[in-house]
Design a protein that fits this description.
heterodimer, A: mainly alpha, two-stranded antiparallel sheet, 11 helices, globular, B: alpha/beta, Rossmann fold, 6-stranded mixed sheet, 10 helices, binds adenosine-5'-diphosphate, binds magnesium ion
């Protein structure tokens, strides 16, 4: 039982990060109808920016702010410089360009910073609190949970409760109608990419200190799992990303604890297959799906 | 003063032009019916005016200001609105969200609330369904919402593409009635493309008949309605 509580608590923190990264994929899908296969490499680049600033200033928070800004800039730059120039209504060019971007970014990061793992220090202790002698979440886990939850809540408010969010949604669902209502649709796509990559960068910034350290591939596994999470939840559904993120985080943690770490990716894959068999659009896919 | 002036518009989709060197001048406050058989180019003309289809040649001016080089968004923000053909309601958004979307660039929060209430007063059927998702609306309700959403931004020139398509006669009469009353009250300039010739001519001052990419007739609405030879030649009935 103690072990279960420990694993579940750890799964919760991991799930929040997964959910945030999955939400970032949902955002770029919903605002620009793109699956960004370069999300991990872009987030890794943003984490390197944070790493460099923290190393130079000694401040974790300055690094965090830089990482978020770098993520937003990378997202906006990728949309303006690359994605916007691709032919519309065909997903393949976007995927190919994103894969090219992955190679360029990862090679560039390896050249600039070296391929080795750079340790990143968390701003709070990673020693778990003991509750009744059982180790549960650490202060850093709590920070991770709070940061991910706060950003997800802020994004939900932005999208659902503000005029800007209304324009972002309209531009994604019905670009031509939105333009006819004066919405600057290209700008909304840029903003969607910026928000998406910034959110992914935050997820990566929260994760990396708990792992081996920073290297150009440090975010790859998070991306793979978060992609599965986004598909499980429904690519169109922010709530689905949250639900599936927490669920998958728990699953990964429990399987890792009770079976083995190498079984965890299989468990995620099995869960995704199962969900897709039962609900091809994902858990919370909208009823009236739009294809364009 | 002319509200909308088009000079030498040529528009096409690759092959022969669909609209060929068309000139059209619409006076401020006029309600003009744009008529023509199916495929005459009414939709193409309206989409070209709003920049959704590029011009091959020609110039478009709104109240004397050249719009030709502007994006669709900027033309809309200059006061040119289009209620497009078909179901342009965003089905994922609620009635209220659809409505407000039309005025976001135009109004600050308070003014937007007031403008939305004005529209709900004008369209009580929408008022009762504010929170309903777009996909639950009937065809008539969608067309009303699309019109209300366009009016919310107080355009100077309103283009409508077959608003009566697929509507019951009663819904059509109601829609055209609101349109006529709004134009009379606010001095809005209207260009109304319709297959429903009788309905369109009943609210218009002037009728323009498109045929083979050019203006085949341009007469006061009452004249056109009363000229069976013309109706037969260009409108097919
Ligand atoms: N997107 C398009 N691509 C190619 N041809 C088109 C397109 N839209 C319309 N057309 C052609 O242009 C002509 C005029 O069509 P349209 O403007 O829709 O006429 P109307 O609205 O008067 O019925 C028709 O011959 C039609 O086939
Ligand atoms: Mg048409």
């Amino acid at each position: 039982m103690d072990r279960f509580v420990f694993l579940a608590a750890a799964g919760l923190a991991r799930g929040a990060v997964l959910a945030l990264f999955a939400l970032s994929l949902v955002i770029v899908w919903r605002t620009a109808r793109a699956v960004n296969f370069a999300q991990a490499a872009m987030a890794a680049a943003a984490v390197y920016a944070a790493f460099a600033v923290t190393a130079a200033t000694g401040s974790y928070w300055a690094g965090l702010a830089t990482g978020l800004a770098a993520g937003a800039l990378l997202g906006a730059g990728a949309e303006r410089g690359l994605m916007r120039r691709l032919p519309a209504h065909a997903p393949l060019p976007g995927i190919i360009v994103a894969i090219g971007l992955v190679m360029v970014l990862q090679a560039g990061l390896a050249i600039a910073f070296g391929p080795e793992h750079r340790p990143m220090h968390p701003p709070f202790s990673q020693r778990p609190f003991l509750i009744g002698g059982v180790p549960v979440l650490s202060p850093y886990d709590l920070f991770t949970l709070a940061a991910a939850a706060a950003v997800m809540a802020a994004l939900a408010l932005l999208f659902n409760r503000t005029p800007l969010g209304l324009q972002l949604r309209a531009a994604a669902f019905a670009p031509e109608t939105a333009r006819l209502l004066g919405v600057r649709v290209p700008r909304m796509a840029t903003l969607g990419w910026a928000l998406s990559v910034a959110a992914a960068s935050l997820a990566a910034l929260l994760l990396v200190p708990t792992e081996l350290g920073l290297n150009p591939h440090a975010v790859d596994l998070l991306f793979v799992n978060a992609f599965a999470v986004a598909v499980i939840g429904g690519l169109d559904s922010p709530a689905g990303a949250l639900l599936a993120g927490i669920g998958t985080g728990l699953l990964v943690s429990l399987v890792t604890g009770y079976v083995s770490a190498s079984a965890a990716p299989l468990a995620v894959l099995a869960l995704m297959t199962l969900v897709l068999l039962v609900r091809p659009g994902g858990l919370l896919a909208p009823k009236e799906a739009r294809t364009a | 003063m002319s509200a909308l002036a088009c000079e030498g518009l040529t528009v096409g989709y690759g092959g022969a032009p669909v609209i060929d060197a068309l000139d059209l001048d619409i006076a401020e406050g006029a309600v003009v019916a744009l008529l023509g058989a199916n495929g005459a180019g009414k939709t193409t003309l309206l989409r070209a005016l709003t920049g959704l289809v590029p011009l091959r040649t020609g110039r478009i001016a709104l109240h004397g200001r050249d719009l030709t080089a502007e994006s669709t968004e900027d033309r809309v923000r200059s006061g040119l609105a289009l209620v497009p053909e078909g179901r342009s309601v965003v089905v994922e958004l609620t009635v209220d969200e659809n409505l407000r979307l039309g005025g976001l660039w135009r109004h600050r929060r308070k003014a937007l609330d007031a403008a939305a209430e004005d529209m709900y007063a004008l369209f009580p059927a929408l008022d009762r369904r504010r929170r309903a998702p777009g996909h639950t609306l009937s065809g008539g309700e969608r067309q009303m919402l699309a019109l209300a959403r366009a009016l919310l931004a107080r355009p100077r020139v309103l283009l409508l593409d077959e608003p009566s398509l697929g509507l019951a006669p009663k819904a059509t009469a109601q829609l055209l009635g609101v349109l006529r009353a709004t134009a009379a009250r606010t001095g809005l300039t209207v260009l109304l493309a319709e297959q429903n010739v009788t309905g369109a001519l009943s609210v218009a001052d002037r009728g323009v008949v498109l045929s083979l990419g050019a203006v085949a007739a341009d007469r006061p609405a009452a004249d056109l309605a009363a000229d069976p030879a013309l109706r037969h030649a260009y409108l097919g009935f």
